[in-house]
Every structure is written in structure tokens, then in C-alpha cells.
Amino acid sequence: MFFHRLKKKKSPSGSSTHHAKTDLVGILIVNGGKDPEEGKWLDLCLKKIIQHTKWPNYRIYVWNNNIEDGSVPALVEAIPGAKLFQADPREKLAHIHAVPLQRLYEVAKKDQLKFIVTMDTDAFPVRDNWLTELIGNLNEQTVLCGVWRDELAGHVCPYVHPSCLCTTTDFIKKNRLRFDRIDIISDQKKDTLASFTIIAEKKGKNIAKLKRSNVNDLHYIMGGLYGNLIYHHGAGSRKETYFWGEEKTEAIGAHNSAIKQTLNQLIFQHNDQFINWLMGNVQDHESFSEGNKLVFVLGMHRSGTSCLAGCLEVCGLYLGEVSKYNMHNQKGNQELRAVNLLHERILNRNGGAWDNPPGKIKITAQDKNDFRKILDSFPANAVSGIKDPRSLLLLERWLVIEKNIFFIATYRHPLLVAASLQKRSKKSVDEGLELWNIYNEKLIRLHKKYRFPLIKFCLENESDYIDHVAEAAIQLGLDPDLNKMRRFLSRELEHEKNHPVPVPDRCREIYAYLEKNRFAVAQESYSFHILKLKKDLLKIESSQFKAHRQ
User: Fold this and answer.
1) Is residue 8 part of a domain?
2) What is the DSSP string of 508-519?
3) Residue 405 · residue 296 · CB < 8 Å
4) Residue finishing a domain among 180, 209, 241
5) What pLDDT digit, counting tens, does each position of 104-133 carry?
6) Backbone φ, ψ for residue 372 (5° rounding)
7) Predicted TM-score (pTM) of this structure
8) Which domain CATH number covers 122?
9) How far is CA 185 from CA 199, 229, 422, in A?
């Protein structure tokens, strides 16, 4: 049950000003120069602007430094009212970005604009009404709104970055601002349009700052979301793979290059999914959802639910104050006591138990209230999880109360489960297999309806298990830490290790379904690329460590 979820954030200033929809907005874009050289960035930027802009009165102005790229004129001409200006190859510009911005502004202001927005070609809006939100932040006191670049504080003064800067022509005129003025304080490093921030601050004006809002990050500069409104590739489109404040070593270059290569693949091949992952959202491509995100970790008793929940916890899944040790699980069963008590009470009242599932289950108003209290105890800004094998017996009741629920599940060979139950709970093999069937039949019914990841619990190949869980975690909006997952895993977590064959006849059909539908790493998917990058970075770090020791 994977939801594609883009949750609307409040504006940075906390309030919005109404402006007439007839006010003309000019969007200034400089293409190419030292970076980036390929027209694909401009193509993507323009497409995203058109896709997400609902403001009825805007015009795009493009300066093209890459005059040898024959695709640019067609891209701009396809947009009604857009204007293209080609660089003169005989002219050497004092600044390849700032000077063209000033020239675009000189042309644009003749069109009686009220608002100006600058965009880098490797930046684009990620949400509808982005322009309305930017403009809505501006008033007499708040004169700037846009991407707040403070990741390099200490090397570069924080400022509104030209990847997305919104202001009024009135503010520009009153303060005689120029887009080609850069070094106004010589003892500090300044980037393009930093002067706009400096003047606003000197005048005592407010700035609506779109701060970096990534829930998940691959790099501290590259691949940034700002206010969950704008994506900026952040120099990831450049040939240069070093940033202000970094040593220009081979190791850092290799690290940044690996990230840059993967980011480019993600942006151009899996754009919506990648943006959604940066926001920390659970993946789906059919529905939108608001509110808390709750993941149920499902599976039969003794089937690896504790191991799966523990691995997901180190990936960022919030489980709360769960058990971290007991005699049957050396690292704890990862279960919340309040959930256990609620499930036990309901099963007992209906004449059953975990090992004697009742045919019909009724819940009371008090049960619903207690479940809601558990949900309300989870933080609103996290992907939270509940792990209790008994959930399979009650889940359809909870789905009536809370719709925003997601699933991930684990299964295990039936005879291994039966052997583990025999050791832990003194169940006969026949009793264990019967329970295995009951729980996994319910799991399959849910899976046919919601199509969630089924993870096979088998630690014979630990790396494969980690890969499967890590990629599933990415699809749940989590950010897997492969080193932490390895440290959490232990072969002792898999108590019965010899896989008996064949599968008992009574379990064969169910087990065949689970095997056929088990989660596999999808080649060339967005989650595959993120996982591959994490593994590549670990190799780079390992090689650096070895070289250092030598």
C-alpha cells in the first residue's frame, strides 16, 4: 500500500499576501556557460515550470550561452510568449551567469513586470502553485523569497541563491540593484545575486527563506530540496566535483563524482520517485495521502519479524520504546508493549489467543480509542512502525480506523518456523504448521490487495538480505545505513539454520505463492540506483581507509 505523497508545507514566512493574478511575472533563466553544457537541463527546467505553474500571467526569458546546441531554440519557441536571447560568440562576458541575468532583466522590465524570478537550469519546482507561494510571501516588509543557501556557511555567507530567487521590480529599482554586481564586500566570498540578500538585510527587511528541507540526503549540497517547493541539483550538473571548503583530493573527487553520476541518473530517469524519496514519502504512483505514515511489519511468529523491524529501525523507522532484549530474541522483539496488550485483550475477549486465532473478531469503541492513542503517540514528522505478529489477525479492523497505513512483511520456511515454535512454545510440529498456514493465508490475502514487499527471512547470504531490506526501506521513504544494518544483523538471529526439504504438502501452495512474490531488487529502478550508490561509497571509503593505513 505505497502512497505517492507530496505534503504541502506552510510558507516560510508563516503567512501569505494576496496579489492580483493579472500581475506579470518574469522568469529569468541563463543556460550554459562553464556549467552545465547539455540542453537536457534546460529542457527539464522548462518542462517542470510549465507542469507546476498555475499563475496565469508569466513569461519566460532565456539567455543561451551554448549557441552550438541546436536544440535550445526549439525548446524555447515551444513555450507561448517565451523569449530567447543568444550569446554573441565574439563577446567575452565579465561573468558568464550574472551579466546575462542583468541583460535579461533589462529586456523583461520593459514588459511592465511586477515580479522577477531567477531560476538555474538545474533547478525546478516540485509542487503545483510554487509561483503563487513564492509571490504570496512578498509584501512591503518581506522583499525576497527563495532558495536559502546556508550549507556552506563558514565559507560563503548565507544568501538567497539564484537557483530560485523571487523579488519585485520595485525592490530592485528602489535599491538600484544589479544582477551583475557580485563582490560588494571584498573580504568575503560572494556568489551571484548575494547582493540582493545583503541589501535586504541592511534595510531591515525580511527574507522568506526556503531552507533545505530534505528528509533524505545523498550529499550536503547536491540534490537539495528547499521548502519542499524547489529542487536544486546544487552544482551536481557541473564538471567540477569539488565545493568551497573542500580539499581537492582524489578521494573527495571520487566520492563527489560517484554521487553526481547517480544523481543525474535519478533526476533524468526517475524524477518523481526520487523527489518523493528526498521528501521521505512512501512510494506509490496512484494516490496522495496526508497525515502520519505508519508501517506495519507483518509476518508469522518466528519468521524474522524482529530482525526485519530492527533493520528498518536503523534505517530510520521509528518504533518507540520497544523491547530490546528477551530470552527468545537476543536483540529484542522490537514490539511496543501497549500494542501487545491491546492485541492480547482483543483476542482473549473473542475467545482466542495468538496460537488459537478466533474465527471472528469484534472490537469495541474502547479498543478503537486505545489504538488511536497509540497512533497519536508517534511523532508526526517520522515514518513510524508497529511490529507484532498478531497484527495479521486484527489488521483489517485497524484499516477501518486509519487509512494511511503501509505494509512490509517477512516469511520463512514452514518447518523452520515449526521447529522454532517447538523450542520456544512447546508446540508440536503439526500445531506449528497449522499456525503457519493460518497466519500466512491472511498475509497472502493482504498482499493480493495491497502488493507490499515480501522479504524472505534467510541469513545464509547476509548481503542479499541487507540489499532486499535496504531497497524496500528506500521505497518506504527511509534512508538505509548499510553499516548499521550489518552491525545489527547476526546469524544468531536465525535460530534454525538448516533448510529442510521438501515443504510439507499442507503448506506447499502458500509457500509457493510467497516464493513467487518475494521482494527482489529491481534493476535500474530509482531504489536500485540509491542502493548501488551507497554500496559504491562504502567501497570508496574502505579503499581510502586501507590506503591511509598503508
Assistant:
1) no
2) HHHHHHHHHT--
3) yes
4) 241
5) 999 999 999 999 999 999 999 999 999 999
6) -65, -40
7) 0.88
8) 3.90.550.10
9) 12, 31, 76
